[in-house]
Amino acid sequence: MTEPASASEPGDGSRPAPGEFLGGSLQIRHVDAGSCNGCELEVGSAFGPVYDAERFGVRLVASPRHADALLVSGPVTKNMAVPLAKTLEATPSPKLVIALGDCARDCGVFRGAYGIEGAVGDVVAVDADIPGCPPDPTEILRALRRLTGR
Amino acid sequence: MSRAVVGFLQVVVLVAGAPILAGLVRKVRARLEGRAGPPIAQPWRDLRKLLGKERIVPEHTSWVFAVAPLVVMCSVGLVAAIVPFASTRTPFGSAGDLFAVVYLLLLGTVFLALGGLDPGTAFGGMGASREMTLAALAEPTVLLAVFALSVPAGSSNLSAIVAATLAHPARVATLQSVLALAAFAVVTLAECGRLPVDNPSTHLELTMIHEAMVLEYAGPDLALVELASAMRLAVFAGLLANLFFPWGIATTTSPLEVVLGMAALAGKVACLGVALAVFEVFVAKLRLFRVPELLAASFVLAFLAVTASFFLT
Amino acid sequence: MSFVGACIFTACVAGVLACAAGLALPARWSAPVVGALSTVMAAAGLAGGVAVLATGHVWAGRFPSVLPLAGVELSLDPLGAIFVVATAAVAIAASVYGVGYAAPSRAARALVPLFVLSLLLVPAAASVTTFVALWEVMALTSLLLVAAEHRHRPEARDAAVWYGVMTHAGLVVILLGLVLFAGHAGGESFTALRAAAGEMSPLVRSTVFVLTFVGFASKAGAVPLHVWLPRAHPEAPSHVSALMSGAMVKLGVYGIVRVGFDLLGGGPRWWGLVVLAVGMVSALFGILHALVSSDLKRLLAYSTTENVGLILIGVGAAGVSAAGGSRTLAAVAMAAALLHVINHALFKGLLFLGAGSVVSATGTRDLDRLGGLVRSMPVTGATFAVGALAIMALPPFNGFVSEWLLLQSLVHSVSSTSATLAVTMPVAVAVVALTGGLAAATFVKAFGTGFLALPRSPAAADAREVPPSMQAAMIALAGGCVALGVAPTVLGGALDRAVGVLAAVRDGSPLRHDGVTLSLSGIRGSLSPLMVASGLVVGAVVLLGALRAVGARGPRRRAENWGCGRSVQTARMEYTATSFAEPLQRVFDDVLRPDHDVDVSHRAESRYYVEAVAYRTAVRDAFETHAYAPVLRAVRWWGRAARRLQNGSVHRYLAYAFVALIVVLVVAR
Amino acid sequence: MTETAYAQLLDLGAGLVLVCAFVVVWRRGLVAIVRALAVQGFALAAVAVVLGVHQHALEPVVVAALVVAVKGVAVPRVLLRVVRSGGEARESDPLINIPTSLVGAAVLTLVAYATTRGVVAVSPSPATRAIPIGLAVVLIGFFVLASRRKAITQVVGFLLIDNGIALVAFLATAGLPLVVELGAALDLLLAVLVLQVLAARMRTKFGGLDLDQLQELRD
């Protein structure tokens, strides 16, 4: 049995958490808006046995209707701009958008590429972001815990 | 305490306890998989948050979509009031027997399937079709198991069955009772959408059954659906517990006995929940078209239970 | 004249007047006048039936002058009254519905009241002649009504031929049976038959039973004599389908019960077992075909076969129990069957009227082309939903009560003393349960794909709600379904009296009730539908209150369907009725044996580019292909052989007659 | 042991024998099928032990030990070796599909119940009342022989028949004489060993254990 990663470092309370409505429960719909799948691997790892994001009340769900937050990875490609907006539209408010990884924050290495619409923030309003290329699972966990406050 | 209070208490305890049972199953599974897992009360946190969220209705839907969660919840809630969980003296003791319970639960299934069909999405239709397929095939097993249970008691009234088992404890170990238990357990897995019939934690739409029907529900409606499906599991677990191991159930409505009955029920259901979690860790999901084989097997078990009760005694 | 007599007289007069009005009045006037007169007729029938059921007094009347030689003998006892009431309930709704429904022709409009009148009178017939005459009127009028739309649809002609042949073959067998019976009894009134039945030899009794059972089963649409039903019901105008399915088919059951249990006074156990077996096969076969059928009215027709099967299971169980000496169980089983007769009349009538509304609004019965109607036709949609829930036997609707009674009687019929019972009854319970489950899937399909989701064709998209008279009829029947589902106890006394007519199963009162709870005598089982219904309502109110209290009933936002980000949703992305039923069709492959046909056409440039894929699947009726086709081939061969005798020469025909004359002279000497 | 406890235990043991037969019909994996057969051997032994304890006799208990050794351990082990030594380990495409087979087996059970009522009625006792179960297992064994394709399942069907006969013998006569039982057990072992050799030959010849291929030997 693998020892779960450290469970210390509670959510940092320096600024008001945008996810106050969550009450310790966060359902995430993951949207791959054009990622190289590096971020996906890290997300998979964050929910795996080692990092086990579920113990903080975070769960991946199958439909944006069930979600509180969209976890968007990758620069938004031209083909994914409309689906991303539609996914956000399909999510019941209050809702959050988390930009995952450098590409999602500012297009990363893909900046200026011909198939790119822009960063996630250019398409939808972003509430939180997680830097890194790809971000470390601990980074992902920290960001999510900051939202849930657990 | 009057019968009405007992019924009300049963509903309250089931509503409060069902998400805890779901949380317990998840926790045990997580531990066995080498994870810490979410806290046991996590499903309640999820529900509380869902209740505060926005209500979304897909375009093109009708009243059916809006009504379905209410009907699902009410039918399972009524079952919680009818079934002798804490005491054999429930308010609706004469209102319904085991057949009524089975058909009330089917009412919920039917409305959930209609709610899945209403938005007209491909996955909703797929989930509804699969759910009704399994419900149709599980029906004979359920009713035959009911039949087998009602033979020794001479009645399909739940209180009578429980009372008969209490009066003759040795009957639990008869062949027909064991076979009926096995059949009922398999059907519980199918009716509650557990492994190996349906994977409750899947995110892959094409493998979904229950989840596919509720993909369009959001916020409070989703909370009702989730709570109802948790209660469905709790009701089936409670039925299994009290029909086959009724000890501890109150036979009067005195407050002390009822509270003890509740505690006994909670203990038995928790044991079943742990057993379910352990079982789920070790089995894989069956292909959809292998599920009828499983249901046929459980049907045969129930059938053998019925015939055994006439030919062996 | 007694009240019941007056009612029947009124019904006759109103029926004949309605028929005349339909023929004579101009089209603009005939619809409301015929509707009003038919309603009066049906209401009079209902009043008469209810009076007999409420008091238990048998009304009898003899009219020697009406029919030459034999005269007409009528008598309405509680058993007949059950069927009269069921018929009248459907007939009232159908008459009101008929006002707004476009009749195919003037003759069709005029025939309907005559058809209803014959339906109302058949259960009151009290002699063989009267019975057979009324039966034939019923058969002929319904046959003409099936053929009514033959000008628009050639299938109607085909259906009429099937129906005509089957119904008359049935009549011949019934006639043979009854004539044999009357011949041995030495009289043709039912009283004489009843009195003489006890002294007849078992062989004669069994022959009479088998002959009449076969004939009546063909009218009831029981497998394997059901083949006319899924053809004729869809082709008839919808309110006539409702009458045929809700009332006429039940008269087949009436005939079996009347002859087998009343006139013959019950029989050996194998009679019951035969009825039970036919019932089980019909129930399963009917619902499986209903499940895979995507023609709405065909689906309903097959579901009628299923429900007749359930009724026959009850009748058969009653026969088996009665032969085994346990009258209490027999009475409960018979009460279950009779209650299901009434219930099925209500919900199947309702569903056929709903289907008729759909057809008149969209012009199609194909579920794969319907959809979204619950929004454009709210009343039809809601009432169809009630009918569908009732036929699925879900509480708190009426179908549940009769299914519950049926299950109770079956579960308790088993005894460890008889191997036959210990084997058949669990099988019967399994069949009823599987039928129930498949019926749920079938009607989720019918309502879910027909009325919910997006319209699958322009015709469905342009549907408009039907006129108020049609809505009123459907609302009335839906109200009946709910009322009998919540308070079946109002029928308790009526069922007791009806079962009391049958010497073989008579037993005090099988159903006990205190107004709320229905309990069975001799069986420890009780049900109070009223409490279940109120429990559901109270639960819903409490739930809504609780949700409001926690602020979870805020405004709703309409949002686009979630489709994984695809740009538009079209109806082609939906599950259709065919795809909905596909998994179950696959599970029951061995029984249904569907024909699949996949046609892939490629583009000219390369085999790797597919131009189009056509997939066809069809489920044929196994009995039709395996049992009827050989018979039809034989008949055709025989016909061709016989044609050689006929070469068109008048001389040869005269020679035949001449030879025949000589043969007669020689033989008769 | 009280009379009711004796009857219940006997029923449970016999019932387990029957359920194992149904598991053989139900499962596709050959390993699972062989395991069910092993469990059936143990259940059979349990029935013998219950009978022995009830009659205060030693012989049934000795027979039970023999049954465990042969039917519970030795034969399944040989079969498992055949299964594991290669080839497809699944009865993937039986001649009659699984749900239909299960319903068919249930019908056979009913036939067994209904036809043995006369036998039971001669001297009703808890032991004779369970005789129909033995006959049902025999019939199901025949059914497996007729409806399955693999050589292993054929052997299993044959063993089911044998187990059914053994159950009937225990219940009807309170056990076969030890010598007869010993002879039968050895016979059985021999038969299984012969079948193992046969299976090995089949595999070298056809590369599988599918009996349909034997049709090629016809001419």
Report on the structure:
By secondary structure, chain A is an alpha/beta fold. Chain A contains five helices and seven strands. Chain A has one domain: Rossmann fold, CATH 3.40.50. In chain A, 29% of the residues lie in helices and 19% in strands. Chain A has a five-stranded parallel sheet with strand order 2-1-3-5-7, sandwiched between helices. Chain A has a two-stranded antiparallel ribbon with strand order 4-6. In chain A, helix 1 links the parallel strand 1 and strand 2. With 313 residues, chain B is mainly α. Helices cover 70% and strands 1% of the residues of chain B. Chain B starts with a helix and ends with a helix. The mean pLDDT of chain B is 90. Chain C has 669 residues and is mainly α. Chain C contains 25 helices and eight strands. In chain C, strand 1 (59-63) and strand 2 (72-76) form a beta hairpin. Chains in contact: A-B, A-C, B-C, B-D, C-D. Chains B and C meet through strand 1, helix 3, helix 4, helix 5 and helix 9 of B and helix 15, helix 16, helix 17, strand 5 and helix 21 of C. Strand 1 of chain B pairs parallel with strand 6 (556-559) of chain C, so a sheet runs across the interface.
Task: Give structural attributes.
heterotetramer; A: 150 residues; alpha/beta; 5-stranded parallel β-sheet; two-stranded antiparallel sheet; 7 strands; globular; B: 313 residues; mainly alpha
